[in-house]
From TrEMBL:
<keyword id="KW-0378">Hydrolase</keyword>
<dbReference type="InterPro" id="IPR029052">
    <property type="entry name" value="Metallo-depent_PP-like"/>
</dbReference>
<dbReference type="GO" id="GO:0016020">
    <property type="term" value="C:membrane"/>
</dbReference>
<protein>
    <submittedName>
        <fullName>Metallophosphoesterase</fullName>
    </submittedName>
</protein>
<dbReference type="InterPro" id="IPR004843">
    <property type="entry name" value="Calcineurin-like_PHP"/>
</dbReference>
<dbReference type="GO" id="GO:0008758">
    <property type="term" value="F:UDP-2,3-diacylglucosamine hydrolase activity"/>
</dbReference>
<dbReference type="Pfam" id="PF00149">
    <property type="entry name" value="Metallophos"/>
</dbReference>
<dbReference type="InterPro" id="IPR051158">
    <property type="entry name" value="Metallophosphoesterase_sf"/>
</dbReference>
<dbReference type="GO" id="GO:0046872">
    <property type="term" value="F:metal ion binding"/>
</dbReference>
<keyword id="KW-0479">Metal-binding</keyword>
<feature type="domain" description="Calcineurin-like phosphoesterase">
    <location>
        <begin position="104"/>
        <end position="262"/>
    </location>
</feature>
<dbReference type="GO" id="GO:0009245">
    <property type="term" value="P:lipid A biosynthetic process"/>
</dbReference>
Length: 330
């Protein structure tokens, strides 16, 4: 995987991006996804051009800023949003092949790289010092859910130079499918309802990734699992935890996601005011289980609407695989 290079060349022209996308996904898939984006964007716009989706309301950042300022919390909340931490999580997988013992995944999510320059700098400075085997990124690169992708793509280009190997990535609800050829030209490997097999010695780990299940609902678990052998060790990358039930039924062992930001603005004790997802609250942050499948919902590295956080620190996460407490090397 480290030798992966894409045949696609990035370009800032939407026409060129569309052509590249059709080469990558097939004309039918690409055109249907773009048509869905245009339809969704039209729903976010009133006749006067004002954005009516909650994440895109022109007044929303000002309202949040005013509320925090009146409570004397605004500067603290901004500082919190840039205080990135490294969270370490251990997945105990019974029967894990010895060759995968200690295998470590770096998960990044909800970067919103064009939101706040200080936050992007914190991410870059943090990840460049970390030791891991594979980086996976679970979506949301752009600040808004509409508009020009160029600022977000520039941020992802800067980040890419500090990531080891070939990062695997999926799209979130803030992302345009036009990002796929652009990001693959940078050396990211996009999983669009696809899977790949990671091999180490005589062990195999299948990693699948689906398109956004939240806003666009263009995920396709059947396509993502098509090549995975029955009983194989498998991990799903999904932007949101909203398809946890279907993923468990599909036989995935592990599930990594983001989207919720852990609530971003939480009450003391980390109680979220909202998670913006159709999920039980137990899935909103950290570790969880669905039948035999283990999941993790990261609070994400970036912010949405406004670069503020309360009682919910931003994070990048290192997930280590282990067969159990008595494993070699523990």
């Amino acid at each position: 995987m480290d030798g992966f290079t894409s045949p696609l060349i990035g370009d800032h022209s939407d026409t060129e991006r569309t052509y590249q996308l059709e080469l990558r996904l097939g004309a039918d898939h690409a055109r249907r996804r773009l048509a869905t984006e245009h339809e969704r964007e039209a729903l976010f716009l009133s006749r006067t051009g004002k954005h009516v989706h909650p994440e895109n309301l022109y007044s929303m950042p000002g309202l949040v800023r005013l509320a925090l300022s009146l409570g004397g919390l605004y500067q603290r909340a901004v500082s919190n949003s840039r205080a990135l931490r490294v969270t370490r999580n251990r997945f105990v997988v019974p029967g894990l092949p010895p060759a995968l013992e200690g295998y470590t995944l770096l998960q990044l999510s909800d970067l919103h790289v064009d939101m706040d320059e200080a936050n992007l700098h914190a991410v870059i400075e943090t990840v460049r010092e970390l030791d891991y085997d594979l980086c996976v990124i679970t979506g949301d690169y752009r600040r808004d859910t509409w508009g020009d992708i160029a600022p977000a793509m520039e941020g992802m280009r800067r980040l890419r130079t500090h990531l080891k190997g070939t990062p695997l990535a999926i799209l979130g609800n803030h992302d345009s499918v036009l990002m796929v050829p652009e990001m693959e030209s940078m050396g990211y490997r996009m999983l669009m309802n696809e899977s790949l097999c990671l091999e180490r010695e005589d062990a195999a780990l299948w990693i699948a990734g689906v398109d956004d299940p939240h806003l666009y609902q263009t995920h396709d678990l059947a396509a993502a699992t098509r090549d995975i052998p029955p009983g194989a060790l498998s991990l799903l990358l999904s932007h949101t935890p909203e398809i946890h039930t279907e993923a468990a039924r599909a036989g995935f062992d592990l599930y990594l996601c983001g989207h919720t930001h852990g609530g971003q603005l939480c009450l003391p004790g980390g109680i979220p005011l909202t998670l913006d997802a159709r999920i039980p609250r137990r899935l909103g942050r950290g570790n969880w289980m669905e039948d035999a499948m283990q999941g993790y919902t990261t609070t994400g590295a970036g912010t949405s609407i406004l670069n503020v956080r309360l009682n919910c620190p931003p994070e990048v996460t290192l997930h280590q695989l282990s067969a159990g407490p008595d494993s070699v090397g523990q």
